[in-house]
Write the structure tokens for this entry.
Amino acid sequence: MSWATMLTTMGEGMLRTSAIFFLTVLFSMPLGMIVMLLRRSRFSVVRWIMKIYIAVMRGTPLMLQLLAWYFGPYYLFGMSIRGYRFTAIIIGFTMNYAAYFAEIYRGGIEAIPNGQYEAADVLGYNKVQTFFKIILPQVIKTILPAITNEVITLVKDTSLAFALAYNEMFALAKQIAASQTSFTPYVVAGVFYFIANYLVAFIMERIEKAFDYYQ
Amino acid sequence: MVLEMKGIKKSFGQLEVLRDISLQVSPGEVISIIGPSGSGKSTLLRCATFLERIDAGEISYLDVPAVTTNAQGTAEYVGNAELRKMKQNFGLVFQQFNLFPHYSVMKNITDAPLHVQKRSREEVFAEAEEILKKMDLTKRADAYPCQLSGGQQQRVAIARALALKPSILFFDEPTSALDPELTGEVLKVIRQLAEEKMTMVVVTHEMPFAKAVSNRVIFMDGGVIVEQGTPEQVFENPQQERTKQFLRNYQQ
Ligand SMILES: Nc1ncnc2c1ncn2[C@@H]1O[C@H](COP(=O)(O)OP(=O)(O)OP(=O)(O)O)[C@@H](O)[C@H]1O
Ligand SMILES: [Mg+2]
């Protein structure tokens, strides 16, 4: 196999890997917000459901969750799962990462001293203004390092999609390595993950810098 | 009356923190509230500023009622929109300043006048400059709270409250979080406001300050007003045993 063929094949894998990555970020970050709000709901039933959801998402392997999302509909309801693979992967990643993001958001919100809400209240800000002008900017600043960690983990976790025999980059690297008895595909994969994470770290650092004007 | 509180009752669970407190503040008056820890001083200010809801009693600002008591004896607040409007009548300066750390000094001061009161930019900024000058902070307008000393931060907090043109300013131990050498600069600006006839209610442990600036001193203990009067009456000639004891302990 020539370098060109290998890189083209793996390039397709990279696109699939990137798709998993971006779609997961796109869906799980807002979903995490909703989970966090429900987790802080006035109703204890809702709080408990969210607690259990978060505990399961964090307490079981993501690979197992992916398998459950993919095969679950078939085993539970006898549904056909043809053509459902990619959707299952995105659902699995999104549900899992939303739980982690929810806890990060919650930590950030709870770190804001009550005095900030009270000052805003006495100055006459309404609830929406208080949240968006006073609380949220401070929350974002405090949670950025944790978000960076989580996003970097996600870059690497995308390789778990191979458990559903999805041809993302890592799965392809493995196939090529086996058929060519070569280690090179793994090196290429490693370089890809490294560069991707380097970019993530670079971008996040830029964003963190933008919040550096106060401490 | 700028503020009228009548028969205020407030409990936290089983704990009765305010038992039947009444307080009237007329324009230009400066009132100091003194008393031992846990006597309910902060709670009284927090009830006056709607940070806590009272159980029973009446509160009105400029003769407009915000809270009334119904036939069953429980407090009834006006609607949320009206209550928010009532908040424009007062300002509160916290012990811990509670400045917005992500806003510059100038933005801390101008943001609420611009976005809550929706006043014009020119007017708001011109006034903010004035207030900063009065607080001796002109040079720090672009600084962030974390770059300021405690005394400067508290003066920014006072400026922020003043910028909304309140009819009355509350202070809850404005110098308690400060190093001793910084209390002076904060007390100085409060004294200056007193000279300008700003109506103020100050919870404080600074007895010489209370003596010097207030028209009236209130001694609270156990959720009631034990004694009140001019600084001379309360400090030089207290009538109640509890007041005497408190002041005695204080001198040691
Ligand atoms: N949110 C709350 N929940 C329960 N108890 C409270 C709450 N706030 C205050 N208390 C209690 O109410 C009592 C009065 O508190 P408050 O803070 O009004 O006293 P204070 O006179 O301001 O005292 P200090 O001089 O220490 O500031 C205290 O016993 C306090 O523990
Ligand atoms: Mg107090």
